[in-house]
Amino acid sequence: MKLTLRQIVNANPALARLAEQKIVCRGSGKIIYAIAKNLALIEKELTAYQKAMNSLIEKFRVQQVQTDEEIKENKEPKYYFPPSVQKELENETNDLLDGEVDLDIRPVILPEPGEEDTPLINAIDLYLLEWMVKIEGCD
């Protein structure tokens, strides 16, 4: 399945919330397995994304001038992004987030709401995970 990094980054908190749920409903073994496999795939992409973002930050950040007192106190330097580079940083970040990756995502089919022990998923999380999560009986 082709996904953009933006989809993956935005969906990660929703997937983590789903993964934290105790799933004991009908077919729970398949559901848990699919979530675990998808988490492993997504984690690799998020690690690569974070490395790329760190490189962009290093490329564009500027160290703030430290006072003599801050140097004496061995304080960590502060950094900022000057206005002259903010648009370029935004463009490069968007280019990165719009990049596509092809992942072997396993569908997660949740039982219909109302069945006993059905995992709970809110509307926002379902929207963010629509490429992976389906509700049985809902099209």
Give a nutshell description of this structure.
The protein has about 140 residues and is mainly alpha-helical. It has helices spanning about 5-20, 30-60, 70, 85-95, 125-130, and strands at about 1-5, 60-65, 80, 100, 110, 135. The chain starts with a strand and ends with a strand.
What's the structural blueprint in terms of helices and strands?
Layout: E1 2-4, H1 5-20, H2 28-60, E2 62-63, H3 68-72, E3 79-80, H4 83-97, E4 100-102, E5 108-110, H5 123-128, E6 133-135
Parallel strand pairs: 5-6
Antiparallel strand pairs: 1-4, 2-3
Helix pairs in contact: 1-2, 2-4
Please explain how this structure is put together.
The protein is mainly α and 139 residues long. It has one domain (2-135). Helices cover 54% and strands 12% of the residues. The protein has 5 helices and 6 strands, in the order E-H-H-E-H-E-H-E-E-H-E. The strands form 3 sheets. A two-stranded antiparallel ribbon has the order 1-4. The chain has a two-stranded antiparallel ribbon with strand order 2-3. The protein has a two-stranded parallel sheet with strand order 5-6. Helix 5 links the parallel strand 5 and strand 6 (133-135). The protein is elongated and about 65 Å long. The mean pLDDT is 88.
